[in-house]
Amino acid sequence: MKRRRPRRNTNRDKQIARVVARGETFEAVGYRYGITRERVRQIAAGLGVQSQRAFPIIIAKGRERRRARIVARAEKRRALEALADRMYRLVKAGQSILAAGRALGLTRSQTDTISRKKKLGGITQHGRWRKKRR
Question: In this structure, is the dihedral angle defined by the CA atoms of residues 48, 51, 57 and 59, taken in order, positive or negative?
């Protein structure tokens, strides 16, 4: 089977790229040249041209994603702080560090991290806990 050689930049493609760069929609350009909106986008992308209409939208979406990540990170931090406070109260009430961690549904690693952060002590290799020396 014979492979098709890729087309070179034709005058039509260059005209399409110029019109897209001016800010006309892909749909309008496609209608004018009798091709689909997606094909117009592909031609413009192949020539390295980006629609001026798309630029503000791309910037806004990037900002929105960054804000969402910041909010998600803050929510996660608050949830972990709440867990750490609950674990602290359980341990101060007389429960062992491991039992408090299990009661809260934490893994052993999470339990150890929170207990060190709250200065409750650490968990030894054998699963026992030791109090922080003063």
Answer: positive
Q: How far apart are CA 92 and CA 95, in angstroms?
A: 7
95 vs 32: CA distance, rounded Å: 75
Paired with 130 in beta bridges are 122
Per-residue model confidence as pLDDT tens digits over 46-57: 888 877 776 777
Contact status, residue 47 vs residue 9, Cβ threshold 8 Å: yes
* Dist. CA 49–CA 57, nearest whole Å: 16
Residue-range domain boundaries for the chain:
11-46, 74-127
| 122 bridge partner residues | 130
The answer to whether the predicted template modeling score (pTM) of the entire model surpasses 0.70 is no
